[in-house]
Amino acid sequence: MEAVPQAVDPQRVAQSGSAVMALVDEIFPLVEGFYVDLHRNPELSHQEHRTARAVAEWLSRAGFEVATGVGGTGVVGVLRNGDGPTVLLRGDMDALPVEERTGLPYASTARGVDADGNEVPIMHACGHDLHTACLVGAADLLAGAREQWSGTLMVVAQPAEETIDGAAGMLRDGVYRRFGRPDVALAQHVGPQPAGMIGHRAGVILGAGSTLQVRVFGTGGHGSRPHTTVDPVVIAANIVNRLQTVVSREVDPKEMAVVTVGVLRAGTKANVIPDEAYLEVNTRSLNERVGRQLHSAIERIVRAEAAASGAPREPEITLAQETGVTANDPAQTSALAAAHRAYFGDAYVVDLPEPFSGSEDFGAFGLPGDDHPIPYVFWFLGGTPHDVWAEAPGESPYEKLGALPSNHSPFFAPDREPTLRAGLAALTVGALTYLARPVAAVPAAPEAPVAFGADGGTPAESAPTAVHPEPDRVPEPLPDEQGGSTQRADMAALLDDDEPAPAPDRVGRHAVGGGDLLDPPPPPRGPVHGTETGPSEPFGRPEPPAGPAFPAPAPQGPPISAPPPPPGATPYRPESDRELGLDEPPQGPPVSAPPPPPGASPYRPESDRELGLDEPPQGPPISAPPPPPGASPYRPESDRDPGPDEPPYRL
After folding, report:
1. What's the predicted TM-score (pTM) here?
2. How many CB atoms lie under 10 A from the CB of residue 642?
3. Is 161 an annotated catalytic residue?
4. Considering 94, 100, 231, 322, which one is annotated as catalytic?
5. pLDDT tens per residue across span 495-544
6. Fewest Cβ atoms closer than 10 Å to its Cβ: which of 1, 21, 50, 618?
7. Which Pfam families match (predicted)?
8. CA nearest neighbour of 95 among 114, 74, 81, 68
């Protein structure tokens, strides 16, 4: 790639986004059902076979060239639509070994076997089901509105984000060599911020992370004769205690660093001193220098404690997982945030003042360390219901965030409809930031209404509390930008708590009827093929989800009334009425229908003629057959007298 593609003007992106999102009501029931099905049927890292099959089938039906088995269970879809840049949209598919406790009617009860052979519960506790549903939904929307954009759309459904090795696996499998190198990569992640809110940050937005596996050795023996042993449990305990001083006494206080011992295993019986102990140590930092410092300190302490206890063998220290910081390209982040503000409105897009300490492997798609790295933008999508956010304890957004169920919690449950709608729009507008056609090449989109909040006010009046205070924005709004949103009516209630609208009949590419949650109705239009790394099985109709049907959630909050018209406004009349003069009073005397021509027969419905109801009866009258011997004459139920023990019938 010679240069990053020039981002399209934000207002132009918002207009294209409005035109594309006009299709959202056609596919939203399918996207929502797809999300619910994925939530109910989660799969662990590197085991996303069912999810990958469903994603591949959806993309194929939308017209993408699809490859499966990329880097294990990864899926890549490519849609070429003329000249222009290549934009990569990424979503992750894997779930966590967590037992769900949300109480949702579609909560997961799935169980599986992890990489160590242990049976574990499985839950989408990090929102990857929502990421995947938004990914295929945005791909479908863009495929159905190709007149609005030009270029190549590359959709990547990534496995194994939770083990932070899925992106690296796809890159090792030659994802760019085989399917093309993107000009920019985009991704989003749901979090505990208010539902529908978009959070951007230029530069570092997520920290680096690593996991070290540590095995220390001792000399086992009887618990009654500890003097004849070297106790690895004591060595491990000393390591845990000493590691707590690394951040507090070795890392500069101006730097962020975390060291956590998440796994400690040793022994099988109280009176048996074991031969070894096992630990897993996790680190987080916001730059590579501090990360290297943490690794060096951990290794030094582990070896020193083993030596101090007289261990018979050197400890084994293995770097099991590692990912660098997620650092957004500043220029592309500014361009994308401006496009999101132009579409959603200023009230729904915030600038995050500081990074989060969590880690992601999405940054690997940017090829850090390469001579020509690929710019990328990663943003946060709020998922907490507004009433839950409002009732959360704490005065500041930071205090509320600390009190709410967050990612990896067994209680993590994004607000389904507003979060899905916002995620669909955010990915779609993100792609159009680079792919949207010039104004002259596309029919002008109709002006969209301003989004109104739950109290009927404008976004500026009724927006949810910002997760973080907003610093001065870069770039400044365009001169003709009035702060309102240019999104279409389907996004007007994005953050409202009103009753969801009934799903309309689906027409066009998604006709009514047929298909389960993993089988969108339109016929396949793109080829699906496996790869040398693991060809997928043929895409048939997947099994329908198990379990009872689930009801839609009850509406929250009072009904929402439309704002009153401004003083002096005339009532709205459809354009078609004005063109036909249907809103004008009739002119002249009443017009009567002309008399029928001589000899014309009166009108009879076609059904009467088919049944012969307009013909005179033929032959003698037909009498009913006599009743059989002993039959009592028919009397209506109301005429029969009640029995001696029955009360008289009363209406």
Report:
1. 0.70
2. 9
3. yes
4. 94
5. 343 444 443 343 334 443 333 333 333 343 445 555 433 444 433 334 44
6. 618
7. M20_dimer, Peptidase_M20
8. 114
